[in-house]
């Protein structure tokens, strides 16, 4: 199976969380290092990718969280052009509502219950001093001290993880209808998918979660380097927020990570140095074993020598006819 669809998707643009405790959610986002837009409950990262909080309101689909009383309600993806937006509208309109509003945003929904939106991307290219390293015989930072970070300043949205009962089934809409590609797979418990041939290793991760049902699991924000992950994480920890996992480095996607529990469910992740891929990337089927979660980490070890992690306690899908080859759809 080869995907031929290409809607010029550029990545996550904005996430909307519907929450019961708006004050706690906005304090979390502010402490995370995002910039608050005026007096709103909307926050932006350096490149313009955003997150918005609204109070849970079950009479409004766009303020209705999936899974719990607080959680993710709407996912906005960026596209390159108005032509992409119109092509997406036609594709989605074949079996669901799909309307481009006066604000230029295409609104629809996926098969999991999340509201979907698509807009021409507002993410900006931002110049900054890239971290340089002094590797043996190939030093790249001469007469210059290493950067220090007092806190993290998230550069951009990276990826979204959604807990589901059957990751493969959950991924189908994104693969078949939106042209996503599978980048890697955690046996039959998780699908890492990207929205374009070239770019992030994954923009979305569907995982068989420990808890039954569909709900937000985590959201990753890219920071500039591993030092910003650690120093930013330390600063965030010092504000009293609780670690879910990390710091550490993932095996799949290579991201250096530190996850913190949010007051509206799931966790947010500082991430750095994730794999970036092209058409040449070869998806791999990883075995479901405890150490799959990280190459190294602090604070995840259990007394039996294995690691805690979102995957290790999950159940495999009950009935999985897919052979590992079938994951290679990209
Ligand atoms: Fe992640």
**Percent of sequence in beta strands:** 25-35%
Global morphology? globular
Q: Could you give the count of β-strands?
A: 22
How far the N terminus sits from the C terminus, by CA atoms, comes to 8 Å
Give start-end ranges of low-pLDDT stretches.
319-330
Give me the strand/helix succession: EHEEEEHEEEEEEHEEEEEHEEEEEE
Name the CATH homologous superfamily: 2,3-Dihydroxybiphenyl 1,2-Dioxygenase, domain 1
The level of helicity is 10-25%
Q: Give me the CATH architecture, please.
A: Roll
Major beta sheet summary: 10 strands, mixed
Count of DSSP H/I helices: 4
Summed over residues and divided by their number, the pLDDT gives a mean of: 90
**Structural class assignment:** alpha+beta
Overall CATH class: Alpha Beta
> Largest sheet, order of strands side by side?
21-12-13-15-11-16-19-18-17-22
Whole-number total of structural domains: 1
Identify every distinct bound molecule in the structure, by name, code or SMILES.
fe (ii) ion
């Amino acid at each position: 199976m080869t995907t031929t669809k290409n809607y010029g998707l550029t990545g996550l643009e904005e996430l909307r969380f519907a929450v019961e405790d708006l004050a706690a959610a906005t304090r979390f986002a502010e402490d995370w290092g995002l910039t608050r837009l005026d007096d709103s409950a909307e926050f932006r990262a350096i490149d313009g990718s955003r997150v918005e909080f609204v109070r849970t309101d079950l009479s409004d689909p766009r303020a209705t969280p999936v899974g719990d009383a607080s959680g993710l309600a709407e996912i906005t993806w960026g596209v390159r052009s108005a032509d992409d937006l119109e092509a997406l509208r036609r594709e989605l309109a074949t079996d669901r509502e799909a309307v481009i509003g006066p604000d230029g945003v295409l609104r629809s929904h996926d098969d999991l219950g999340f509201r979907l939106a698509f807009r021409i991307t507002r993410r900006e290219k931002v110049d900054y001093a890239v971290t340089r390293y002094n590797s043996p015989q190939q030093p790249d930072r001469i007469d210059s001290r290493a950067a220090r970070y007092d806190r993290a300043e998230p550069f951009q949205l990276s990826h979204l993880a959604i807990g589901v009962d059957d990751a493969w089934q959950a991924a189908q809409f994104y693969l078949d209808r939106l042209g996503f590609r599978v980048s890697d797979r955690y046996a039959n418990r998780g699908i890492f998918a990207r929205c374009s041939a070239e770019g992030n290793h994954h923009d979305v991760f569907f995982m068989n979660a420990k808890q039954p049902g569909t709900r937000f699991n985590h959201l990753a924000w890219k920071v500039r380097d591993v030092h910003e992950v650690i120093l930013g994480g330390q600063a965030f920890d010092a504000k009293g927020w609780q670690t879910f996992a990390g710091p550490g480095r993932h095996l799949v996607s290579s991201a250096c990570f530190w996850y913190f529990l949010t007051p509206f469910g799931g966790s947010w992740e500082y991430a750095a140095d994730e794999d970036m891929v092209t058409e040449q990337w070869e998806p791999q089927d990883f075995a479901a074993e405890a150490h799959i979660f990280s190459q190294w980490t602090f604070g995840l070890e259990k007394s039996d020598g294995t690691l805690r992690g979102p995957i290790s306690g999950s159940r495999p899908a009950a009935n999985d006819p897919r052979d590992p080859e079938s994951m290679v759809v990209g």
